[in-house]
Amino acid sequence: MHPPYHDIIKFSNDERDLSKTKTIEEFLKMFCEVVDNATPYLEKGDNTLCYSEK
Predict the structure, then answer these.
(1) What's the pTM?
(2) What's the CA gap between 9 and 38, in Å, rounded?
(3) What is the dihedral of CA 11, 13, 18, 21, to 10 degrees?
(4) Residue 1 sits in which domain range?
(5) What's the N-to-C CA distance of the chain in angstroms?
């Protein structure tokens, strides 16, 4: 399965789907929201890297 790369692969018809965004700016804004919402649930010491540019 591929991650949502802006508009390369469509995953669904749901407007909340990151692959449905119309601009890269909209995609990055929504992607940052995902990262911000997931980050508090990551355990310290995990080998997970999240980058969020606000």
Answers:
(1) 0.63
(2) 23
(3) 130
(4) 1-37
(5) 28
